[in-house]
Amino acid sequence: MAPTNRETPALRTNPKFIFFTDFDGTVTTADSNDFMTDNLGFGKAKRVESNKGVLFGHVHFRDSFQEMLDSINTPFNECLDILKKNIVLDPGFAEFYNWSRENNVPIVILSGGMEPVIRALLDILLGPWWDIQIVSNDVTSREGKDLNEKGGWTIKFHDDSIHGHDKSIEIRKYSSLPNRPTLFYAGDGVSDLSAAKETDLLFAKADKDLVTYCENEKVPFVTFRDWTTITQTVKDIVAGKTNVQEAAKGRI
Ligand SMILES: [Mg+2]
């Protein structure tokens, strides 16, 4: 067991399993950034086209995502209010969250979205007592403007990578350790490409872009429709009834 330090906070309780997860469209049923782009920005048709460009390697997620968010002029506080009214939690996530707390399986959110959005939504969706580490992008005001004025905000990326947030950076802090915990990841879309190959078992949301990517890239995975199936599979692995290799069944 490596010493716990500031770089690897999920090891604080000496867990045997860590669950990394995307947030938008994975913990929630709909993606908050897609919702804003479709309803407040340049619209769904162009957004879906741009996602395809990322999926098939024609454009970087960072550039695609910047363009989407730059098409939104709505003040940031108004965006938060709109999202709080429209984004809902996956029907099985609260149960998984409670189980994870009781069974020492830390959850780490790795998101391409903006941290204040994730925090505001979790306050509503899980209640103000939620306690989950978040590693994500952030929001920043445009020069000379306030976040809460028209055209006043833009995304502040986590790192300099083509992903904006390279999710493999956080996962590799753990996967590179000797005698490390078993690592899981759940995701749904193009913001998850940098994480897809990094954990011991990947849950990919059924019918979404991440499944297409895994099949094209021959990355082992298992599909999920909501967190009830994730919960059952993780419980079975923790109980020793199955293992990560057996559980990677592809489309189920
Ligand atoms: Mg997502």
Automatic annotation (TrEMBL):
<protein>
    <recommendedName>
        <fullName>Phosphoserine phosphatase</fullName>
    </recommendedName>
</protein>
<dbReference type="InterPro" id="IPR023214">
    <property type="entry name" value="HAD_sf"/>
</dbReference>
<dbReference type="GO" id="GO:0005737">
    <property type="term" value="C:cytoplasm"/>
</dbReference>
<dbReference type="Pfam" id="PF12710">
    <property type="entry name" value="HAD"/>
</dbReference>
<keyword id="KW-0378">Hydrolase</keyword>
<dbReference type="GO" id="GO:0000287">
    <property type="term" value="F:magnesium ion binding"/>
</dbReference>
<dbReference type="GO" id="GO:0036424">
    <property type="term" value="F:L-phosphoserine phosphatase activity"/>
</dbReference>
<dbReference type="InterPro" id="IPR036412">
    <property type="entry name" value="HAD-like_sf"/>
</dbReference>
<dbReference type="GO" id="GO:0006564">
    <property type="term" value="P:L-serine biosynthetic process"/>
</dbReference>
<dbReference type="InterPro" id="IPR050582">
    <property type="entry name" value="HAD-like_SerB"/>
</dbReference>
<dbReference type="InterPro" id="IPR006384">
    <property type="entry name" value="HAD_hydro_PyrdxlP_Pase-like"/>
</dbReference>
